Amino acid sequence: MSFAQSFRLAVKSLLTSKMRALLTMLGIIIGVAAVIVIVSLGNGMEQYMNDQFEKMGVNLIQVQIYGRGGSRSVEPDDMYALVDRYPRYLSDVSPYVSTRAAVRQGRDNYARTTIYGVSEAYYDYASGKSMGGEKLERGRFLRYIDVSRYQNVCVVGSYLDQEMFNGTSLGKSMTIGGVPYTVVGVLEEKADSTEGSGDDVIFIPYGNALHLSGLSDANLYLFTPADKDAASAAKGVIEKRLYQTYQSSDYYFVMSSAEMMDAMNAMMGTMMAVLVAIAAISLLVGGIGIMNIMLVSVTERTREIGIRKSLGAKRKDIRGQFIIEAGTTSAIGGVLGILVGI
């Protein structure tokens, strides 16, 4: 019996009992669809994270300082001096203070707004975006005089611009922690302009943010290397300076955006491998289901097998027919699984 004849017989057998064939394929369909969906979602999430890092700038270096008390501490002036000393490797630095306080405009209270304290170096007018990827839509960002004199000015996200002032916030005032602040800039929408999102933010001079949070010094700094090739050397310069102060690497943490991106991709790869392995179990279960049904089919079709053997069919012909039937069932289930997965 030729392969074509065996295939036609397999299709005919599946059409004879459609419901049983569909239930037999169900494990394969679910397994294939699950693998496609999980891999697709994982690739999409990885691409999304890479895009976010690209917006921030792959050359960004984050420095987290835990401190050890006593006289061993690093102040913003020390970080500024480090940039001035190594212009070949470092371009800018900005303290980065995250805090919350009562944000009010008239009788309205904005409890979920996040306040960030930064310096004028946080925003680069040459590239048109900040170290965190924000872009100005109107007005200006913080200036050196704002930061040095602790002036009560702020830059707001698009959510606050719309909710507080209906898109006319420039030059108007709000209170942060009970202190009036004047809006000097509005950021472009980067999230979905909803409460608590990335557009529900306020940027103020970092000294003001330290006062609001009750901290004496910033514990997070954002550096930008002089260029992409200098990122590794810039990280080494920062680590050397911090080690001179703390005499141990346990009191600070330095990581570039490129390293963070690699670490996240590695973690995502591991997670994806585990999820795909779990989804693949459905394929194994589906395969066992097909095997079980084919074994049952053999006992149900003993008369048919006997007739074919009496007509000269060999054992390999009978075996080949059932293998082709099992393969056809798997192939059809795989195609349906691909369609469902897509």
Summarize the structure.
The chain is of the alpha+beta class. The chain contains 10 helices and 15 strands.
Structure report:
53% of the residues lie in helices and 19% in strands. It has ten helices and 15 strands. A hairpin with a 4-residue loop joins strand 7 and strand 8. Helix 1 packs across helix 10 and helix 2 packs across helix 10. The chain is elongated. The mean pLDDT is 86.
**Counting H and I runs of at least 4 residues, what is the number of helices?**
10
Give Rg in angstroms: 32 Å
Per DSSP, what share of the residues sits in E-state strands of 2 or more residues?
Answer: 15-25%
Order of helices and strands: HHEHEEEEEEEEHEHEEEHEHEHHH
> How much helicity do the residues have?
40-55%
Q: N-to-C terminal Cα separation, in Å?
A: 37 Å
Number of strands: 15
The biggest sheet amounts to:
9 strands, mixed
Residue runs with pLDDT of under 50 for 5 or more positions: none
Give the mean pLDDT.
86
Shape: elongated
Q: Class by helix and strand content?
A: alpha+beta
